Amino acid sequence: MGCAKFLFVFSLYSLFLMDASTAQRPGFVSLDCGGSNNFTDEIGLEWTPDNYMLTGDIVNIVVANETRKQYKTLRSFPADDNKYCYTFNVVSRTRYLIRATFLYGNFDNNNVYPKFDISFGPTRWATIVISDANTIELQELIFLATDPTISVCLSNATTGQPFISTLELRQFNGSIYFNQFESQFYLSMSARINFGAESDEPVRFPDDPFDRIWESDSVRKANYLVDVAPGTEKISTQMPIDVSRDEWPPQKVMQTAVVGRNGSLTYRLNLDGFPAPGWAFCYFAEIEDLGPSDARKFRFILPGAPDLSKAVVNIQENAQGQYRLYEPGYYNISLPFVLSFRFGRTSDSTMGPLLNALEVNRYLKKSDGSADGPVLAAIAMSYLSFKWANEGGDPCIPAPWSWVQCSSDPRPMITSIKLSGKNLLGTIPVEFTKLGGLVELWLDNNSLSGPIPDFSGCPNLKIIHLENNRLNGELPSSLADLSKLRELYIQNNLLAGKIPSGLLNKYLSLNYTGNAGLHKENGGSHKNIIIGTSVGAAVMLIATITSCFLLRKGKKKPPRKGESQHNLPPQKLASSLGDTNAEAAHYFSLAEIKDATNNFERKIGSGGFGVVFYGRLLDGKEIAVKRLTNDSFQGKREFTNEVSLLSRIHHRNLVQFIGCCQEEGKSILVYEFMHKGTLKEHLYGPLTHGGGMNWIKRLEIAEDAAKGIDYLHTGCVPAIIHRDLKTSNILLDKNMRAKVSDFGLSKLAVDGASHVSSIVRGTVGYLDPEYYISQQLTDKSDVYSFGVILLELISGQEAISNENFGHNCRNIVQWAKLHIESGDLQGIIDPALHEYDIQSMWKIAEKALMCVQPHGSMRPWMSEVIKEIQDALAIERGAEAVREGSSDEISRRSAHSSLNLGSLDIGASDHHYLAIDESIAHPTAR
Ligand SMILES: *[C@@H]1O[C@H](CO)[C@@H](O)[C@H](O)[C@H]1NC(C)=O
Ligand SMILES: *[C@@H]1O[C@H](CO)[C@@H](O)[C@H](O)[C@H]1NC(C)=O
Ligand SMILES: *[C@@H]1O[C@H](CO)[C@@H](O)[C@H](O)[C@H]1NC(C)=O
Ligand SMILES: *[C@@H]1O[C@H](CO)[C@@H](O)[C@H](O)[C@H]1NC(C)=O
Ligand SMILES: *[C@@H]1O[C@H](CO)[C@@H](O)[C@H](O)[C@H]1NC(C)=O
Ligand SMILES: *[C@@H]1O[C@H](CO)[C@@H](O)[C@H](O)[C@H]1NC(C)=O
Ligand SMILES: *[C@@H]1O[C@H](CO)[C@@H](O)[C@H](O)[C@H]1NC(C)=O
């Protein structure tokens, strides 16, 4: 810690708190550094100047062909050892993109191009190296906000002067860019490419609602998209593309693509920041009309990674149709700096490969920041009106604040605070006493009043300067316990009472003159006691710092959870009921049914359509017999139609239909018997013993049920809307796997279109409010009901309750929404749940809220819900394995989860993962 730097007091006032919600699109902030007024640019972004910055110079520049106003100015900073920070308000637990751009424009008329660092909070983000005066350098991070503010700092001027042109903050919504590493890593953008682009212009806002910048593949740059295979052709369409999947690439990007007419697509490009582990996704949509005998199948080939080539992409099949997004990728893949890749047609494919877009981000490890960060932030908070309290960023990293010094640990601690003569008022903030590494404290020559606090929390204190203030009260005796104290200056205050004798028996420079009431134990003379030498003190200081570091290093970090995950979104094979072999329903006689049920002896349930009885067939098979209420299906013909439909629906997450009976005016349906009863009974009923089900079990049940529902929506033609999803319609088998029951009894949904029905059917608490009002039934009505079920799984509360949700609230949706949206997830988690990973809980809570959005169009599809549940399960299994302390467990379980998700699972090292895809293992279901 250089003395010169310590004494150098620079003027810096960099705190900028801008409420992101005031911008044109909620969560957008566009800062025109060096600008002088607000303006709206040609694409509709509203720019604001950074004119609250009191440091740095505003410079106007002129760059040929650059007409955008935000690039006519920049702000430059002194080339020194300090950091210069911009701070923004953000919403915690929300993902954002932050983009910093730098257009040099030779603003300083210097022959040396600038080189400096930018950091994001304490994390070193990038080194900005200007290599061309007229080219914009750009850095972009995607992050999950954990604190209410973020800061971007410029520092480490290596050559030239640090400067900045723009800072852009863009808020995401939903689970876009979720990844299981996000608590420890940021995503730093390396490539985001729009293939087949029709011009050199990038696609961004408003085409991309989040203002991501999708670079055109026709821009010519060094080592950027070279080695293009012969036969590569651009194609485009005007057809709308369904992009409503996780990353929401803009439709405009998906409407163009490149195809390898000669069977291959090849590209080479440099990936900034690599080699490193990264996040890489491809975006595909079939935008050509394929003939009936045409197939487009291809593999991804990355030299040195043969495993990645095992999976075959078939866009139309993977996306479940034309003009629909399919986004396979890797959450954690190691990529080289020079990325050279190929898509190659398979031998049985008639069409060459196609690629619409590509996105590659690097994982940037978050820095924990200095150990005393929160304490210093609290101190700064109490002096917000002072410049020195507004320097922003971390107190120590990448450069310390002007008034502190830090240890040089990987996790630095504050060793010195120097706030002499800063006009401080009030009492000494108690936060100072929490700095365990503090060696020097200088608060002299202020107007501080009140007592001297207890500094026993700072055992390393060597120098305390409190002279020339208005401190009163007695000298705390704890000062005498500071074994390292060598200098205590308290002269010219209003202190009184006895000087603790401990202070008089030490090698301590103590100056207490000018305190009228202060006297030695024996009431003796008010004399300075100067003992010891400064040399001795210096030796002690070194000893202090060293021992303190050793102590800190002994602390172990908790083991990391989170395993590599090579999973891709689930693949679905579209199939239609009409194509499958329709099995004829088995017709039972009433006598057989009476026999099996012992004349309807044991009632096991009742539902909207009738009463259910336990039965056992002659061959020992256990069955559930549903005797429909008389008016359910009057006509024999209608009954037969329904039954033949039911007999054709097979999915392992749907209760199996076995047969029926219609005699003597009774209509009876026979299903497989589910041993463990209903989910409802396990959550609230008689089966809730010993705290009921743990969180993993609940997630597994949710996954099973969601798959069953998704199959009804997408696997059946025409699609089936359940209409009456609720916890009593989710049944559990011997192994506690869930199946959905009571489906298909409502009228079939008309394929793709809304269904209008005269009777609103459903159960209070689960009923989609939009359907209730409009009577327009869509599959999103089931999504609503499923959202309610998810909330029940989280909270262990029933959908409707007169007592449990507080005043004026009978409904779980209102209640949960209120808590979750205010960040209080804990407030709704079932007290019976003890071990769970809060991340997986948040994922489900957020998805559940999306499911119960008032309008169907805002709710996700079941496939998205499934993916979220699977992600939550992967997190939870990882966390459980850590809890159980077994690393074998981690690998076994994560292998299992990639099996569940596996589709284009090219990260998996084993063919089995592809073969056991559920759609293949259960052909009858698809
Ligand atoms: C500029 O925009 C910001 C944020 O949108 C607003 O707070 C400020 O009042 C505007 N300034 C002027 C001069 O309009
Ligand atoms: C500016 O644009 C013109 C016309 O498009 C072009 O000829 C010229 O080379 C460009 N200048 C620079 C510096 O890019
Ligand atoms: C400052 O930048 C130089 C050159 O990029 C680098 O070697 C050095 O490690 C950086 N210093 C800090 C403290 O980050
Ligand atoms: C997220 O943003 C996209 C794009 O603006 C929008 O279409 C979607 O409805 C939003 N989702 C939610 C849950 O707000
Ligand atoms: C495509 O391949 C064929 C046969 O290999 C070759 O004759 C043709 O020139 C290739 N087309 C292009 C554009 O390279
Ligand atoms: C990605 O995988 C590598 C190697 O398997 C591992 O070291 C790393 O921690 C994983 N996660 C991230 C975010 O890099
Ligand atoms: C003690 O403080 C007084 C008042 O500031 C000063 O005059 C005196 O020189 C100091 N004594 C020593 C030994 O530093």
Automatic annotation (TrEMBL):
Q: What is its EC number?
A: 2.7.11.1
Every copy of the Protein kinase domain together lies at: 598-873
**Could you tell me where the Polar residues compositional bias lies?**
565-575
Q: Does the keyword Chloroplast apply?
A: no
* MF-aspect GO terms: ATP binding; DNA helicase activity; hydrolase activity; protein serine/threonine kinase activity
A single GO cellular-component term from the record reads:
membrane
Any stretches that span the bilayer, and where are they? 529-551
Q: Where does this chain mainly localize?
A: membrane
Highest rank taxon of the organism: Eukaryota
Q: Where is the signal peptide?
A: 1-23
> Which PROSITE patterns does its entry note?
PROTEIN_KINASE_ATP, PROTEIN_KINASE_DOM, PROTEIN_KINASE_ST
Q: Where does the UniProt annotation locate this protein?
A: Membrane
Gene3D superfamilies noted in UniProt: Phosphorylase Kinase, domain 1 (3.30.200.20), Ribonuclease Inhibitor (3.80.10.10), Transferase(Phosphotransferase) domain 1 (1.10.510.10)
Q: Where is this region: Disordered?
A: 556-575
- Cited InterPro entries: Kinase-like_dom_sf (IPR011009), Leu-rich_rpt (IPR001611), LRR_dom_sf (IPR032675), Malectin-like_Carb-bd_dom (IPR024788), Prot_kinase_dom (IPR000719), Protein_kinase_ATP_BS (IPR017441), Ser-Thr/Tyr_kinase_cat_dom (IPR001245), Ser/Thr_kinase_AS (IPR008271)
Topology class, membrane: Single-pass membrane protein
Detail which positions bind ATP: 626
- What protein is this chain from? non-specific serine/threonine protein kinase
